[in-house]
Amino acid sequence: MATIVAAEVFVTCPGRNYVTLKLTTSDGVTGIGDATLNGRELSVASYLSDHVCPVLIGQDADRIEHIWQYLYKGAYWRRGPVTMTAIAAVDVALWDIKGKVAGLPVYQLLGGAARDGVTVYGHASGDTVPQLLDDVQRFLDRGFRAVRAQAAVPGLERVYGMRKGDGVTYEPADGALPSEEDWDTGAYLDFVPTYMAAVRERFGYGFQLLHDAHHRLSPIEAGRLGKSLEPYRMFWIEDPTPAEDQETFRLIRQHTTTPLAVGEIFNSIWDCQYLITNRLIDYIRTSVSHAGGISHLRKIFSLAELYGVRTGSHGAGDLSPASFAAALHVDLSVPNFGMQEYMEHLPGYEEVFTTSWRFEDGLMHPGEQPGIGVEFDEKAAARFPYERRYLPVNRLRDGSVHDW
Ligand code: CS2
Ligand code: MG
């Protein structure tokens, strides 16, 4: 039996903050997991190093489910983003170790490839509609089969989803305190159909088109958005409303056939249960890193399979390469895969993380390296110390705080 002999937490900022857990076994095998909770990174780092790492030492590294249950039930305080991100990091690190011990990529341990590759969508954005169209072109030229389109709303200063300069991200904020964005739902609802029309007019219907409403609408507004986008045959609209009041999805459903995707801020199967079992969504978008790791994500996806709901793993740049790779292993192996987000990581991440995934013709594959296929260079990580950063705060025109 190989026991866990070391559990170390690293916080590094190669362009943006990532928290990484590294486990080492008595056989000298190491595994890594992502513990990044964007804008609240140190809370998970502390949860792990102060509370989880000490109880991992001496545990049997082979017993992934057992350790998951030990951390979940043993803490008494269940669920929540901090707890579930910490458990996810341990879980992914243990799957990484199991794969390395077996000499197999994790997707093989999950049943093997259920498809040739994983369809991913890229993030196109523009401050103006012509800029957005150029950006969509850029993704189609690279071979993407699916593109998310977001444009700045005329009259608003700063809106979610716009790339800054040449970087591949639009958050976290620039400074060490939250930046401010502004919002006007009416202006947004009038504008979105005009640019989706422009995208379809220029590029046609031969690729999947997606959009993220980022929790900003009321149910009836979401119904209106979905209905107005029906001519453009969206693959999905994402997070139309904050999904705390899940019953309201019935109202959205009554008004539109545009498919709905939800789940990036959910962290357990219990958050997903109602929407899935009532068939109120089409895609469940939980992430490996915020919803309890590979073990828990598979349970969520299996529940979804029973109800005809497909998967759409969250893959924003604030999820480190370790969780992006882990998501690809799950995507490749589950029967009800739908779509994987691929926001890409900021240039510079390669100095710290070495990856084995590949992108070809719009599809991704996690590669054949044993484990999750990502290596973490702790010496390089030390060159990029943590920087406090926040997600932006969003305000209506009268100054009230609105959902970001
Ligand atoms: C977004 C994310 O990728 C997405 O769909 O909603 O960029 C989200 O804003 C971040 O993950 C927040 O940390
Ligand atoms: Mg989103």
TrEMBL record:
It comes from Streptomyces durmitorensis. Pfam families: MR_MLE_C (PF13378), MR_MLE_N (PF02746). This is D-galactonate dehydratase family protein. InterPro entries: D-mannonate_dehydratase-like (IPR034589), DgoD-like (IPR034593), Enolase-like_C_sf (IPR036849), Enolase-like_N (IPR029017), Enolase_C-like (IPR029065), Mandel_Rmase/mucon_lact_enz_CS (IPR018110), Mandelate_racemase_C (IPR013342), Mandelate_racemase_N_dom (IPR013341). Residues 129-259 form the Mandelate racemase/muconate lactonizing enzyme C-terminal domain. It comes from the Bacteria. Gene3D superfamilies: Enolase-like C-terminal domain (3.20.20.120), Enolase-like, N-terminal domain (3.30.390.10).
